[in-house]
Specification:
Length: 147
Amino acid sequence: MQRPAAEALLRAHRELVKQGNGLLIFDAYRPWYVTKIFWDATPSEKHQFVADPAKGSRHNRGCAVDLTLYDLRTGREVPMTGMYDEMSERSYPDYAGGTRDQREHRQALRTAMEAQGFTVFDTEWWHFDYRDWPRYAIQNVPFEEIR
Ligand SMILES: [Zn+2]
């Protein structure tokens, strides 16, 4: 990730540790060519769940992160209202289903992230964009070339 976004993420993590949870990161920076692969592999009726390569993804800018909470005591993922990368309405951050505990966990993640300048994506409870994303270019640097 871009350094200011990574530092904001670390602050969110430190707040969540006080509640007994850590941040489990699924994905962060992603080269543009990967966005293209995802788009091509996804049926068109599900395209609202993947970034359009014509516009690029905020992941391509190093300003987006996909993540959830894990329980520091057990090391297990905290149950949320839907699974990571699930292509259904359960992925919406305002989805009203699931258990009360699941909705509270989802809200705890969102609250901690929003306090550090991140915004949740409207179709994915696990995806957050850092506020300065327009300042960073879309990049296509492969992982093995990152230092
Ligand atoms: Zn994402």
